[in-house]
Amino acid sequence: MWCQRLAWLLRGQRGSTGRRWPWLSQDLGPVPAAPVRCCPTAPAAPRCAWQLHQDHLELRYGSTLMRLDFVWLRDHCRSASCYNAKTNQRSLDTASVDLAIRPQAVRVDETTLFLTWPDGHVTRYGLEWLVRNSYEGQKQQVMHPRILWNAEIYRQAQVPSVDCRSFLETDEGLKEFLQNFLLYGIAFVENVTPTKEDTEILAERISIIRETIYGRMWYFTSDFSRGDTAYTKLALDRHTDTTYFQEPCGIQVFHCLKHEGTGGRTLLVDGFHAAEQVLRRAPEHFELLAKVPLKHEYVESVGGCHNHMIGVGPVLNVYPWNNELYLIRYNNYDRAVINTVPHDVVRRWYHAHRALTAELRRPDNELWVKLKPGKVGPGAASSGIGPGWDLGAESCGFGTGRKAGCSVGVLVSGHCQIQQFSSFWVL
């Protein structure tokens, strides 16, 4: 889905020079021995060769060697009787497929695989479709292309802000915002009227607003009106937000409405860039941070607010088929007691956590943004938007923070769904 968005965004443009997220190599290993019961090659398709095994079809197309289970091949049939192309939903009853099914005949031409099943049903697959959707093809693909950055990379990129009117009223303005957000994980809209109502209109243009224990859109200042360090004047180290939700919020909208006094700077750090450095220098630390489940909790009893929420998950969340990072849970304030792993794992986890923390705290990774009415980043009045999943954020970016003793001012914030993020452009 994200790749479709980026394909739309970058259509007709040259490919990005930014680095894509690497994945850990996993050798396919030798083909398991099994009796061959069918013609092993398809001479009509010079780029394609196939071999029929006891329970799967081995198919080589171009440089990709695929092993396709027979039940999988029957279950994913895209014929009119098996798949509703109008609703993009499966019609076939998977439970009715014989788990010992084998095709009676197999044929491959230059573009298509044909399988005839025992009941006479014929399944057709485009070879390119199989490459995209097979396990072997998926493990070589990146779900969410992005540009990883430190402060210097981001400054040199000169990522433009988007004017509010253009963002709200034109496809071009929204397109520019989407490109900034999807590639860098942070984006800015300028000239937003400093009210909660106008900020909410902007948020609705991005995605569905997610109502949480804080409300739909809420005011935010250093008055300790909620049981959270963010509502004080204490320093905030870099962190991601809502780690105590089982599904952390995907996007956070953050708008400074009023500011008096000194300070007010927000720290942005690309957590994915830091994680990549850990993977490169100490892959065992990356693996541990991606496997050890931790509890994060939010406990408050302030005024009329009484909440105790617990979310469970590792610091680094990766897709298991290609080890691509998609979510960071990094919040030392909200991390609960570590009681989910035995003692011999705990010490190793602390070493891994220290390695990631050291990367996040490197001065060259710090991008400081002034939060005040009329200017957040370049330009006049603006709103900053940042993701909690792809980058992990509070305020308007990846891991964020602030200095102690600052006059925070009055801000408005809100969360948006990452799943429905500008789904208009997918359709």
Helix content: 10-25%
Q: In oligomeric terms, what are we looking at? A: single chain
- Quote the beta fraction: 25-35%
Structural class: alpha+beta
Sheet with most strands? 7 strands, mixed
Q: Predict the CATH topology of the largest domain.
A: Double-stranded beta-helix
What is the alpha-carbon Rg in Å? Answer: 25 Å
User: Which geometry do the CA atoms define?
Assistant: globular
Straight-line distance between termini: 10 Å
Mean pLDDT: 79
Count of alpha and pi helical runs: 11
**Low-pLDDT sequence parts:** 1-44, 223-227, 374-384, 386-408
What is the CATH-assigned architecture of the largest domain?
A: 4-Layer Sandwich
Number of strands: 23
Classified in CATH, the superfamily of the largest domain is: Clavaminate synthase-like
Compute the number of structural domains: 2
Question: Would you give an account of this structure?
Answer:
One of its GO terms (cellular component) is mitochondrial matrix. It is found in: Mitochondrion matrix. By secondary structure, the protein is an alpha+beta fold. It has eleven helices and 23 strands. It has helices spanning 2-10, 70-75, 127-133, 135-138, 151-157, 164-169, 171-184, 196-206, 271-281, 283-291, 343-360, and strands spanning 48-52, 56-61, 64-69, 83-84, 89-90, 105-108, 112-116, 122-126, 162-163, 187-190, 209-210, 217-220, 236-239, 251-258, 265-269, 294-302, 305-313, 316-319, 324-328, 367-370, 382-387, 399-402, 410-416. Strands 9, 10, 11, 12, 14, 21 and 23 form a seven-stranded mixed β-sheet that branches. The protein has a four-stranded antiparallel β-sheet with strand order 13-22-15-20. Strands 1-2-3 form a three-stranded antiparallel β-sheet. Residues 1-44, 223-227, 374-384 and 386-408 have low confidence and may be disordered.
